[in-house]
Amino acid sequence: MKPIVVDQSLIAYCGLYCGACKKYISGTCLGCHENNKAGWCKVRACNIQNNYQSCADCKEFSNPMDCKKFNNFFSKFFALVFKSDRAACIDKIKKEGYNGFALYMAEHKLQSIKRI
After folding, report:
1. Domains in the chain: how many in total?
2. Is residue 116 in a domain?
3. Are 85 and 112 within 8 A, CB to CB?
4. Element (H, E) at 25
């Protein structure tokens, strides 16, 4: 098992922190940026096309929940099941920067900020 480390490159395009994901830690996933099998993900495709590190860099939507790629059925289902708040993750990246976000997520061993 890999340790949970502070690494900006492990911040997924949608704001999740791959560095604390069970699949990444166990070695069964390379993380969002390296996972070429995730061609189905429209958020990933949009970020790659626009050369963004994550949705926090988006110039079109200041609130990611206004974006239909970010706020779709799959993401709503994921949020419900995992009590995840990816929009809060994007907001935290905007406020604290990528390194601050990675530090917070690694220290708290979180893949996502939890919905309340």
Report:
1. 1
2. no
3. yes
4. helix 22-25
What is the phi/psi pair of residue 20, to 5°?
A: -115, 10
Instruction: Read off the pLDDT of residues 78-107 as tens digits, 9 standing for 90 and up.
Output: 889 889 999 999 999 999 999 999 999 999
Q: Average pLDDT, whole number, for the chain? A: 95
> Does residue 36 have a pLDDT over 90?
no
In a domain, 113, yes or no: no
The CB-side HSE value for 54 (13 A sphere, CA atoms) comes to: 27
Domain that holds residue 20: 8-108
Q: What does the block give as tokens for 92?
A: 């935290």
Torsion of CA 91, 95, 99, 101, to 10 degrees: -40
Which residues touch 73 (CB under 8 Å, ≥6 apart)?
none
| Spatial distance between the Cα atoms of 115 and 87, rounded to a whole number of angstroms | 10
- Whether residue 115 lies inside any domain: the answer is no
Residue 26, in any domain of the structure: yes
C-alpha atoms less than 13 angstroms from C-alpha of 31 in its C-beta half-sphere? 19
